[in-house]
Design brief:
Shape of chain A: elongated
Strand order of the largest sheet of chain A: 7-8-9-10-11-12-13-14
Radius of gyration of chain A: 23 Å
Largest sheet of chain A: 8 strands, parallel, barrel
Number of helices of chain A: 10
Order of helices and strands of chain A: EHEEEEEEHEHEHEHEHEHEHHEH
Structural class of chain A: alpha/beta
CATH class of the largest domain in chain A: Alpha Beta
CATH superfamily of the largest domain in chain A: Aldolase class I
Distance between the termini of chain A: 39 Å
Number of strands of chain A: 14
Largest interface: A-B, 51 and 51 residues
Number of domains of chain A: 2
Helix content of chain A: 25-40%
CATH architecture of the largest domain in chain A: Alpha-Beta Barrel
Oligomer: homotetramer
């Protein structure tokens, strides 16, 4: 933390702040510039708590230096985290494609899609059982019944299963069935849920909140890790901007930014990120080229009749094409990245 | 719902869509323009569900016509909703000022501030017991202990008490103590919490999500109302934009927009909306001038030592000034609005 | 400027940077914290130019301390700037209302509106002669012919006249006719135009760019002032956000933020800021309550037939009501602000 | 255009609007739904001009159907536009890499970088001669002197040269030297400049405005085309969002969106789009994978001493690596896109 004093700050004000900080057990370094005096705070910043130093007389502003999270950083753990999901590795040089319907609508539909994505080469099956919907009048999901259907689909296909949890009680139920739980964008700052997921011992896909900065997103991961669960997969899924041509603006640059800051694997959701079926394939390829470890994508046997998110769902045939293209690209990237 | 066909759509494609809609029990009106053919859908749109008509061959795009919410609208209930909180009316021509510390830190601090805001003229006491914090290493609130302290402060001052709930279990506890519960910005789309608050019979302050459109915010209120709880106070608290001079951008225009769309009372939170103490008074006045029914504001006996949100908290003296100014303005607005 | 070194930075890297800065004629203060070493740079930062210190080995990031503008600040000039426009004072405790049609369409329409706004109490007449329009197929303005019509309207009503300039050549023509020139939102960073306006000796209304931070906006004012023209009126007119219920989000909090940073007068444009006629009056009142020195507002004798921006234009009768309300509020604010 | 009437609109109001439109020479189709009546307008919408139909009694809102631009669409010209720049084809299946310093600082520096990027395989040389800078105290470019240096670099390397124009007068000068002119983000809605570039007969790189929607950007291209210049290259360079980890948010999804709407070639600027050197290579690859026709990238022989935009400039060695990787990826994409 650095304190910038106002140009008209008095020596007495500077002394007061220094003494205040020293009483807290911190040390200070004072630099007098042409216009501004800067006070650098040295020591364990937890001693400072949330003290609003900007309210002290003579202070212009305070500037944080250290990042507020720790466990998620590469400084803390330089080597990439690789997460084992029933034998499939997420991160560390393996492509991960997670596919399935937005919502588990019934057994037949789910199993049909599970078989299709398995045959096309997907590594995990996704499907929503608890659906957070903007309108109270939309389909809200089959809940535990949906989780049972996913478990049946796993039995048939061997694919690990992923589904979203939306509350502590849905988490408790979900842990009985799932291989990976997902925290959706709307719950990225549902801190109680983050804590409870942190106490579970299950891999977590943590989606970026629709208006979350990368720093807030890493803080959300820190919540989970601070409770002891280190198996987190970061998932970029689009941020809210002024642009209306796409449902959200998929922030592909978040992939290399995260790769520079954290050891956690990073995947991308091009379905929610764009909201448009025609954009799913090009944006999946862009994600891989930017260095993502994989994608999570919505697939429906009959998008026209999907109970939710039809416009952004791929058909089984579309998905087979995506799978071929993304595999070809992932393989080509080894050659591309080998250039120097 | 209106369907816009692509310029090159064939008559067969248009017929297919018409027949599809008629099978669902809907009627259609077809308008052929110079370039585009438009299909208007007539009938109960619930028959349509979430069918992604934009995926049908020949469709350029679909445009929703009706709003997705109903109970919150002035069409449904033209007269303003007035909410009675222990005798104080919120909405309908009464000024409401809710004040208190960001967090309940201890009994002494809370009661001291409760007395101060009561003496200055506040109508309700606010204080956080369950604190959703961005970093897991920040103070997280006293929880039930905090609610008990608020109840004591009510006993001493007679002020009704307001606090935030962050999960179904905190709601259950809160209902034992509070007069009004608050849904924070981060939980505006925590739909399970909205439903449970909807089943309670207690007034609710529903804060706008940091990146929520006014339409999504009204949908969140609709969730609560659709469960039977009609006592909702909408609270604008700033949206996330590119501007960094303020913590958020307080969207004062949301006040008249809401007033044109909904019968619910509207208040403004200038503390979170700006993040800066010096902006709290001018933005409180702006809110009232724009037609807000009141404000909710953070007050601390010693902002320098507040455990959270110190930079945006008013001191007791600041609050007394605010209360005088806002009362003077509220009274003057009757004369101002009487001009025509 | 403060340089934050990476946690793993070596002493040699720190020395290299110190020496580099000393060679430029700057001095340094080094603070070693628990995790980070911070290098404070002392001296005239112009010696640094745009040197990208963040590229030097071992640097984590750099943090600017001083603001990049100077002439616009209250540090440079503490007393408020008051601008005299043909005897009417802008700023310094006088209400300024500038009104008129979006576009000068013809003589009759302009003079009719000029007389109406004069009679209602407006202080200046606005009207667009050079119209920057999103589509090349929209009405583009009467250009010099429009300026002549405004000058005639001034002769008849005595109102000073304001119009937008969009290029150096339009500025040259405009200087022959206008009392105040306006730089529109789209040209806020048209630096050549800013320079040429800076060389003129005429009051300037500088509108905020639709996505400009307050810092960038102040920098644009600095451009004008650095060429010698000190008569600048800052005009908030809405920023682009994700919200679509309004054309833009009128950032009322920019008013008190500017008032804390600059000596320049601040007005608000509630017409472009909201894009909706029904919001113009409440947002005008909010602007005044927040401390604005005035407003600029679109008025048309027949908004239904306006050649541009009809939806946000007030009729003559609407404007007369606005004028009464805003005057009543402005007068009441003296009493409101007198409370302490 | 579709008009949605309010639920309480009367038959008389509907008739009035119909008659009004018929007098203008338009035809109408009226659809009465359960709640809303919709009036579809049929005929040449230019007859309507900017009439604010939303102001007519009984109207809830109006919804545009047709896009406001025409010449840029694939409906108007289905085959991709390929632009010939001294024999190098932009668009239509050829990779285009444009590289060079942010600013032309002097002859030696420019020629050294020109030779380096030529040797690495670049197709054109870029360099800024007229620099629009946020602060009036930053380096503003060598102007015509800079253009002469670029022309010398062309003579030596054979590379076509690209530079930004910022005003009609700079355009006039630039036409004497350049092969391609660039309209920068800040001038995307400088409509007078767009018109003058439209009257010239030179290829244009049109950068997206920092807060421009894709629709506004296409409208800006329409301005140029409506004056007769059809040689436009669209360049995505990042939009302004709330995220601060990157300078802007590079909207890679704009590439496939544009490819679906327009016949014009699309390139991406990963330097300005991210503001960080480390992100330039991954985002260049993402752009190509998403279907871009090329990139424009900043290269400096000594980024530490660049007079502008050093932090985002690649060194000569970095650029050579980028060139190898991007070529490898571009070649691989043929195989990737061949999968189905």
């Amino acid at each position: 933390m650095v304190i910038v004093m106002r140009p008209d700050a008095t020596q007495e004000q500077i002394n007061n702040i220094s003494e205040y900080l020293k009483k807290l057990g911190l040390d200070v370094h004072i630099s007098k510039g042409a216009e501004y005096t800067i006070i650098g705070i040295i020591g364990d910043k937890r001693l400072l708590g949330d003290t609003p130093l900007e309210l002290m007389p003579g202070v212009e502003k305070t500037i944080p230096i250290a990042e507020p999270y720790k466990l998620v950083t590469k400084t803390f753990k330089p080597e990439p985290t690789v997460i084992d999901v029933r034998g499939h590795k997420v991160g560390g040089g393996t492509l991960t494609v997670i596919a399935g319907p937005c919502a588990v609508e019934n057994k037949e539909q789910t199993i049909e899609t599970a078989i299709a994505v398995k045959n096309a080469g997907a590594h995990m099956l996704r499907g929503g059982a608890y659906k957070p919907r903007t309108s109270p009048y939309s389909f809200q999901g089959l809940e535990e019944e949906g989780l049972k259907i996913l478990a049946e689909a796993r039995e048939i296909t061997g694919l690990p299963i992923v589904s979203e949890v939306i509350s502590p009680s849905s988490l408790e139920t979900a842990l009985k069935y799932l291989d990976v739980v997902q925290i959706g964008a709307r719950n990225m700052q549902n801190f109680q849920l983050l804590r409870e997921v942190g106490q579970a011992r299950i891999p977590v896909i943590l989606k970026r909140g629709i208006s979350a900065t990368i720093e807030e997103w890493l803080n959300a991961a820190e919540y989970i890790m601070s409770e002891g669960n280190y198996q987190i997969i970061m998932c970029e899924r689009g941020i809210r901007t002024f642009e209306t041509a796409t449902r959200n603006t998929l922030d592909i640059s978040a992939v290399p930014v995260l790769k520079s800051k954290t050891h956690l694997p990073v995947i991308v959701d091009p379905s929610h990120g764009t909201g448009k079926r025609d954009l799913v394939i090009p944006m999946s390829l862009a994600a891989i080229a930017a260095g993502a470890d994989g994608i999570i994508v919505e697939v429906h046997r009959d998008p026209m009749h999907a109970l939710s998110d039809g416009p952004q769902s791929l058909s089984h045939d579309d998905f087979a094409v995506l799978m071929k293209k993304i595999t070809a690209l992932y393989n080509a990237m080894e050659h591309v990245n080998g250039q120097y």
